[in-house]
Write a structure and sequence with these properties.
Blueprint (H helix, E strand, L loop, with lengths): L1 H21 L1 E11 L23 E4 L7 E3 L1 H4 L3 E6 L12 E5 L3 H7 L1 E9 L6
Parallel strand pairs: 1-5, 2-4
Antiparallel strand pairs: 1-6, 2-5, 3-4, 3-6
Length: about 130
């Protein structure tokens, strides 16, 4: 009986590992910072393109769906970011992709600069 339970557990774990690996994607992108200033956004600088108010962990990306979760381990460790905003149209067809990370003040965004970043994208299990 113990052998059967261990066997089933191993099958379950290996199935979960395959499922998770199919639900993630590793990319190298250009990461920049932005803040809620009218000159960096539009006339409603604290409202995202998805209609939400800005928050810590917000990312703008034109190549990812709203609600997509992203981790930037080399810069922010295990912090999870959520795509809820869009960038200017001129950033749409860039290779590599481009993400814009929201910062609470302009100085922090400027100090972040532009960096090459390895990201992990967690694909949504289903569309909301």
């Amino acid at each position: 009986m113990k052998v059967l339970i261990v066997f089933l557990f191993i099958i379950f774990i290996s199935g979960m590992a395959t499922f998770l690996s199919e639900r993630t994607q590793r990319l190298t992108v250009v990461a920049t910072g932005y803040s809620s200033t009218a000159r960096q956004t539009d006339s409603t600088p604290r409202i995202t393109a998805s209609g939400d108010e800005v928050f810590d962990g917000l990312v703008a990306a034109n190549f990812l769906e709203f609600g997509t979760k992203v981790v930037i381990p080399g810069i922010f460790g295990a912090k999870i970011f959520t795509v809820k905003d869009r960038m200017n149209r001129r950033f749409t067809n860039r290779d590599p992709g481009h993400i814009d990370i929201w910062f609470p003040d302009e100085e922090m965004a400027i100090n972040f600069g532009a960096q090459a970043a390895n990201i992990v994208v967690f694909k949504p299990l289903f569309a909301l």
